[in-house]
Amino acid sequence: MRKAKILFKNIEAGILTQEDDGSFLYRYHDNWLADQSKPSISLTFPKSDQEFKSEFLFPFFFNMLPEGSNKQVVCKLNRIDRDDYFGLLMTTAMNDTIGAIRVVKIEE
């Protein structure tokens, strides 16, 4: 199992988890849900205490990944398998993203 913090404007909004079977879960933190001034991170993740589940990386996060030659270079330099979308997301969305969302790996 691998986990990453999802930050919205540098404030932790929730946790993205990749289970051992390859499926994904996203859950907001309770304090994020309780604060009415905090928005949802995406229209596809409305603020809710439910856990969002998917067999594949959620499209919202998948669309943050590099493509084509950029993906090849990142995978080669960081020794990431081309099909390891979660590893690629944690590597590329940690510091430099378009928009307010960052993805930071949680060390176990």
Q: What's the arrangement of secondary structure elements?
A:
Elements: E1 2-8, E2 11-18, E3 24-28, H1 30-34, E4 52-54, H2 59-62, H3 68-78, H4 85-92, E5 101-105
Antiparallel strand pairs: 1-2, 1-5, 2-3, 3-4
Quick synopsis:
The chain has 108 residues and is an alpha+beta fold. The chain has helices at 30-34, 59-62, 68-78, 85-92; strands at residues 2-8, 11-18, 24-28, 52-54, 101-105.
Structural overview:
- Residues 5-103 form the HipA N-terminal subdomain domain.
- Keywords: Kinase, Transferase.
- With 108 residues, this protein is of the alpha+beta class.
- The chain has a domain at 2-63 and 94-105.
- The protein contains four helices and five strands; from the N terminus they run βββαβαααβ.
- The chain has helices spanning 30-34, 59-62, 68-78, 85-92, and strands at residues 2-8, 11-18, 24-28, 52-54, 101-105.
- A five-stranded antiparallel beta sheet has the order 4-3-2-1-5.
- The longest helix is centred in the last third of the chain and has 11 residues, at 68-78.
- The protein is globular and about 40 Å long.
- The N and C termini lie close together (9 Å).
- 18% of the residues are buried.
- The mean pLDDT is 93.
